[in-house]
Amino acid sequence: MAVFLRFRDQFLISKKGFHLGLLLLLSAPTYADDLLERTNSNLDYLRQQVINQPEKGLIDIPASERVIGELSQVLDGYDLELHDQILLRTVRALSLKNINMLRLNSLQKVDLAQAELAIADIDFVSKKSDSADLLYAAGHISMHLLDYPVQAYQYWQQCAESGHAGCMNILAAHRFTGENGLAVDVEQSIYWHQQVYKTGTEYICAGVFSAIALGELAHFYSELDTGGNWTQWLEKRDLLLDDLISKGHDENICQLGVHYARDFVLQHRLSEDNIATLDLAIKLMAEDSEKQVLEVIKQGKELSTVIPYLSSIEYPEEQCSLTLSLLLYAKYDGQQKAVQDLTDYMTSLSMEYCAWEFALIERMQTSGRWH
C-alpha cells in the first residue's frame, strides 16, 4: 500500500509503498527506486522553494514548472494509491497557486490553465479528505487568479462552516462591507466574527481582531446584538492579548497601534479622554509618519495639518484606519475645516484597502448618525 509520510516536516513517499504498477516493479525495480527518490526530491523542492518560500518573489518559476511537470507525469502515468494522489495533487495545487500569485503581483500574465488545474486538484482532494486549508486557497485562486468571486465565496463558505479561521474572517468582513458583490448581511457578519473570536488565540491574532470589530459595531450601532458593548469587547480583546503575552509573544504581536488610536477617539466621543491610550498608540506605531499623525492630536494642533503625514504612510490599511480615526476626532471636536479636508482625503483612498472604513461611514450615514 502506498503511503506518503511527513518526515522532518517534509512531504515524502515511503519506499515500500510507492505503487507504480506490477509490471514496472517486476521488470525494473531500480527504475522504480529512482523514480521514488526523484519524486520525493521534487516534493521537497516544491515545499521549500514554492509553498513555504517566505520571499515569494524569489520563486524560480521555470524551475518550479519543470518540477511540477514531473509530478504531473507521475500522477498521469501511474496507478497511485488514493493517499498518494491526494498528496501530489495538494502539492501541485498549492505550488501553482503561489506561482501565479507571484505572476499577478508582478503584473505578469496569469496562466489560467494552471489556475484551473489547481482548482481541479483541490476539488479532487476536498471530496476525499479534510481540506479546509485547501478550500481557503481555492477561494483565493478563484477570486484573484480566475476573477470568479461567486465561486470564491462558495469555497470560503464551505471552509468557514468547517471552522477555518481565515475563511470565517473573510465572511465576517465581507458580509459587512459587501465586497466583490457579496450581499451585505450584518447579522451574518456578527455571527462569523463571533465564531472567529471563539477560536481565542489558536490563530494568534484572529480572535483579537474580531473582538475589535465586534466592539466597533457595538459602539456605532448599539441596536445590534454583538454579544457585548464596546467596553466589554475591549476587555475581551485585552484578555486575549494577555494570553498571547503569557505564551511568550511580544506585546505588539498583533500590531494594534491604529486600534489603540481608534480607542482614544471613541473615548473622546464619550468625553473619557485617556492620554495613556494615545501614548500607547504612539508607542506601538511602526512608522514615524503614523506617530506624527497622533502627535498632532496630542499637541492640540489643527487636524488638517495631518494630511501630509497620512499620505506618507506606507501601509494602506493603516492609512485608511488612521484617516477615519482622525475624521471622527475632527467631527467630535467640531473642527469643520478638518472634517472637510479629511473627508476629501478619505474619498481619494482605495476601496480595496478601506472597505471596512467606508462601510462604517455608509451605515452611519444611512442611519442618520453621520452628522
Structural class: mainly alpha
Number of helices: 18
Give start-end ranges of low-pLDDT stretches: 1-28
What share of the residues does DSSP label as strand, in percent?
Answer: under 5%
Shape: elongated
Largest sheet strand order: 1-2
| Chain-averaged pLDDT | 89
- Cα-based radius of gyration, to the nearest Å: 25 Å
Strand/helix succession = EEHHHHHHHHHHHHHHHHHH
Instruction: Give the strand tally.
Output: 2
User: How much helix is in the residues?
Assistant: 55-70%
In whole angstroms, how far apart are the ends?
70 Å
Major sheet characteristics: 2 strands, antiparallel
Overview of the molecule:
Helices cover 69% and strands 2% of the residues. With 371 residues, the protein is an all-alpha fold. Among the domains are: 129 residues, no CATH class; 116 residues, no CATH class. Helix 4 runs antiparallel to helix 5, helix 4 packs parallel to helix 6 and helix 6 runs antiparallel to helix 7.
Short description:
With 371 residues, this protein is mainly α. Helix content is 69%, strand content 2%. Among the domains are: 1-129, no CATH class; 256-371, no CATH class.
SSE topology sketch:
Elements: E1 4-7, E2 10-13, H1 22-27, H2 29-51, H3 61-77, H4 82-105, H5 112-128, H6 132-145, H7 149-161, H8 165-177, H9 186-197, H10 206-220, H11 230-246, H12 257-269, H13 275-284, H14 288-298, H15 307-311, H16 316-333, H17 336-347, H18 351-366
Antiparallel strand pairs: 1-2
Protein traits:
371 residues; 18 helices
